[in-house]
Automatic annotation (TrEMBL):
GO terms for biological process: DNA repair. It holds the Pfam family TRCF. Residues 1-66 form the Transcription-repair-coupling factor C-terminal domain. This is Transcription-repair-coupling factor C-terminal domain-containing protein. Gene3D superfamilies: Transcription-repair-coupling factor, D7 domain (3.90.1150.50).
Amino acid sequence: EELQIELVDRFGPLPPAAKNLFRITQIKLKAAAMRIRKIEANSTGGHIEFERDTRIDPRFLVKLVQSKPSLFSLDRKQRLRFVQPMSEAETRLDIAERLTKQLAEHVIDKKSPSESA
């Protein structure tokens, strides 16, 4: 965020493509911290692919799918699918940010046995 502020200070308002690049980078950094491998979205929906050692509470994922089965599904062990119209890139970024924020609220502390000793 500091880099974005500095760029605006030096060069003026950022073009939409540059703003989106910063948003994408923030989403990727947050996702990596939660052990999310990939987030992909297109005009009809997308998916979130988790690492095997993801820090997201699996009980939350099950509750999410059960509470909104028309929107979410688990298609494999490490993949959460979502169905939602998102024709604009801005909308896809908004949804990706909202989902990563929601997932971040359900992070569990998964330390390896060597870390907890």
